[in-house]
Design brief:
Shape: globular
Strand content: 25-35%
CATH class of the largest domain: Alpha Beta
Radius of gyration: 21 Å
Strand order of the largest sheet: 5-2-1-9-19
Largest sheet: 5 strands, parallel
CATH architecture of the largest domain: 3-Layer(bba) Sandwich
Number of domains: 2
CATH topology of the largest domain: FAD/NAD(P)-binding domain
Length: 379
């Protein structure tokens, strides 16, 4: 029997497992293939809703479904804590002592914010990058009476356009709540432009002044003083704030570190085209877990899932698994004023933001509703 194990039941892991379940259905029914997803939680969470939760435009129930309901019924689900990957034995060692053997392993463990890497940030800052953080920020905005909102960005982080989205949306929110004349919005970014993707940075350079949003580049947060309500950068600059909204630096899951598979940030070294872990023919990596210099976003995992599923299926059927990932990414960008734009790019073609429109905004809202079809491997 060929055993395919997927670590992580988020977007990437669910999409790969569901595609494989359809592509290998005869083999599964004959008992020749077994597909197993290992996930820490019995819930599947659609994380892009966190941005909307911060503005009370979504609630947790919108973002949750049982993981079992998302997966093809031919896919086994183990809910539990994976302690370590034993490459030499081709096994995943669980916290309860269970051992899950594999012939092919797909690592789709995602990434997590690391606010504790910046002293004072957890105490002094808000974030919308976790569900709990988004709900706490929602309440902070409810109580906000005006002043300076600082949006500060650490790298690396997932969903690379979300900080821009929040900045434009909070500017709208202030106007809608008659706080525009009593408030200012300041956006900071750690390099010499407003976004890591130059065309997106150029677009933001035009939009921010039009909205009256201030910005500061080369600002790498070193410490936050929650009592004085200030943040200080490695470059020696200090900013005062009334409400600090931070996108903390992210890291890969500790499981990767415990398994000695990743670098210092727990990112798994991954071939940019085959999506195989470097030096491991039977391990594939996708989504945020990779060390690839491309956006850590749901659409990245979606396009990578197509490649990983097709190649594993092909290899099970006797092929070489030669389909290559071209770096394709697609991201909607909320731009405020009930409008949105989007970017699409790959390894060879840089993004070119389109003119924002209400129609694209509606497309994004519709996609949020249709996400569950993507997770099921249907779209």
């Amino acid at each position: 029997m060929t055993r395919i194990v997927l670590l992580g039941g988020g977007a990437g892991g669910s999409m790969v497992s569901n595609q494989l379940a359809r592509q290998l259905k005869p083999e599964i029914l004959h008992g020749d293939v077994e597909i197993t997803v290992i996930n820490e939680s019995d819930q599947h969470v659609y994380q892009p809703y966190f941005l909307y939760m911060a503005f009370d435009q979504a609630v947790p129930a919108d973002a949750h479904r049982p993981e079992r309901s998302v997966l093809n019924r031919q896919v086994k689900l183990i809910v539990g804590h994976a302690e370590r990957i034993d490459r030499s034995a081709n096994k995943v060692l669980m916290g309860d002592g269970q051992e899950v053997p594999y012939d092919y392993l797909v690592i789709a463990t995602g990434s997590v914010p690391d606010p504790d890497s910046i002293p004072g940030l957890s105490e002094g800052g808000q974030t919308f990058y976790t569900e709990a953080g988004a709900l706490k920020l929602r309440d902070a905005l409810r109580d906000f009476q005006g002043g300076r909102i600082v949006v500060t960005v650490g790298v690396p982080h997932k969903c690379p356009v979300a900080p821009l989205e929040f900045t434009l949306m909070v500017h709208d929110w202030l106007k809608a709540h008659d706080l525009g004349d009593k408030s200012e919005v300041v956006y900071t970014y750690p390099i010499g432009r407003l976004h890591s993707l130059e065309p997106v940075a150029e677009w933001a350079n035009q939009v921010f002044p039009q909205r009256g949003i201030q910005s500061q580049t080369f600002f790498n947060v070193e410490t936050v003083d929650p009592h004085q309500k200030t943040l200080t950068s490695l470059e020696g600059e200090t900013l005062a704030y009334d409400l600090l909204v931070a996108i903390p630096p992210h890291k890969g899951q500790d499981l990767i570190g415990r398994s000695e598979l990743g670098d210092a940030g727990n990112w798994v070294p991954t071939d940019r085209h085959t999506l195989q872990m470097q030096g491991a023919d039977n391990i594939y990596v996708l989504g945020d877990a990779t060390n690839l210099p491309i956006s850590k976003a749901g659409s990245t995992a979606h396009f990578e899932a197509d490649v990983v599923a097709a190649n594993i299926s092909n290899r099970v059927h006797g092929g070489n698994g030669s389909l290559r990932y071209d770096g394709k990414v697609f991201c909607f960008i909320e731009t405020g004023n009930d409008q949105a734009t989007y970017i699409k790019f790959d390894y060879q073609h840089p993004p070119q933001p389109q003119a924002p429109s209400e129609l694209i905004h509606l497309y994004k809202l519709a996609f949020n509703k249709m996400y569950w079809l993507s997770a099921a491997g249907i779209l």
